[in-house]
Amino acid sequence: MASSPDVARTSSPLWKVVGASLIGTTIEWYDYFLYGTAAALVFGKVFFPNSDPLTGTLLSFLTYAIGFAARPLGALVFGHFGDRIGRKKLLVVSLLLMGGSTTLIGCLPTYHQVGVAAPIMLTALRLVQGFALGGEWGGAVLLVSEHGDARRRGFWASWPQGGAPAGNLLAAGVLSLLTAVQSESTFLSWGWRVPFLLSALLVLVGMWIRLSVDESPLFQQALAKAQARKASQQAEQPPLVAVLRHHWREVLVAMGARMAENISYYVMTTFVLAYAVTHVHLPKQTALNAVLVASAIQFALIPLFGALSDRVGRKPVYLVGAVGVGVWAFVFFTLVDAKSFGSLLLAVTIGLVFHSMMYAPQAAFFSELFATRMRYSGASIGAQFASVAAGAPAPLIATALLKDYGSSTPISVYVAIAAVITVLAVLCAKETRGRDLAEVDAGQEAGASPAAVPAKTLTV
Predict the structure, then answer these.
(1) 3, burial (CB in 10 Å: exposed 0-12, middle 13-18, buried 19+)
(2) Can you give the pTM of this predicted structure?
(3) Closest among 363, 362, 179, 155 to 286, alpha carbons compared
(4) Helix pair angle (372-389, 437-445), 10° resolution
(5) Rounded to whole angstroms, what are the CA distances from 218 to 2, 182, 222, 223, 375?
(6) CA 210, CA 223: separation in Å to the nearest integer?
(7) Do the Cβ atoms of 29 and 89 come closer than 8 Å?
(8) What are 30-77's pLDDT values in tens digits?
């Protein structure tokens, strides 16, 4: 079958672009999730030692949530320049910022050494992490989406999404190994620093791979047209203005679609560590191993659900995931409360199966909502502004609900409400499977909304 017309020739084969995006996002998510895992298990004792365990965890999650506040700023800055000068350059910058801040966290003095200055420095570096990640996600998935074709975009664009469970797998794995071979006192003294310092080495590997791929061919075409318009003195709107003028509906859809996906993930992979250890009194190693195994399973599932979205559509797969996670939230904590590794593993694994059904098609779905010259801005703004209301406070809200009510039921209701919001948002969107990105650009140049560009019926 002939490829879609939105495929352009490039000297970088698609598998190389996918590999570079996957490895880069894995490293960035490793850095980001490492903080979340450490916030659940370590930072309360190291940076907030004067509080009771649950309050210390709450304060630790507060610094974790603050990092999300910088993600919209990162989306705006990286999106603007990514739409102006290219995806690849900005991805290199985001990787350097993330790796540098994570390495410095591993060098921080503790509360006992410098007092309140320690959590302040921790929070500042967390803000840098958030800023970097705010620009990473959009660039990574767009680089793959714009290299590939409409027929298998869901499959190929889902691979960078695999960087999230892979990064979580790597972060939980390193911490699990250290807790297994070190005593509690040694781990709290210096062992927790090792995974953060390891980031410096990972960034070097990621930089070498990421610099080896070419810029998106679709972006190069759009940039050439923009330069031609500029030469003829035709004014071009800044990407942010263009997004808000032409794509505000798509931005709202993206934000709503992220609510259940984002909240459920951080409750079921980050908060569950604190819940299992502090509330259920399971061993730290048991909780880490459950998340470790479940993340490995999710990594394998994401491309499968991405491919499924190429066959049946983005919306059906996404909706099943949203409904599933809303229902599973009530089963989830019942299984965790059973106090066994098997029940905890089942709870997290099934939760991540439903999450994968949303997360896998998300990259292609969001890419297909926006035109090329504002795609980085639109996808990043929709994704990262939602994270402030969704993923940022999720562990914090879950911890506060547990502290106030002493029960997991309010937390399950919280996840279920997020699922309802996501279902409504996705139902309001048009199916984008098969949408030609070049036709989205042509339609935008003619003044049409991308939603007006029809999706094609594809033979897969």
Answers:
(1) exposed
(2) 0.81
(3) 179
(4) 100
(5) 18, 50, 6, 9, 11
(6) 21
(7) no
(8) 887 788 778 877 888 888 887 777 777 778 878 877 887 888 898 888
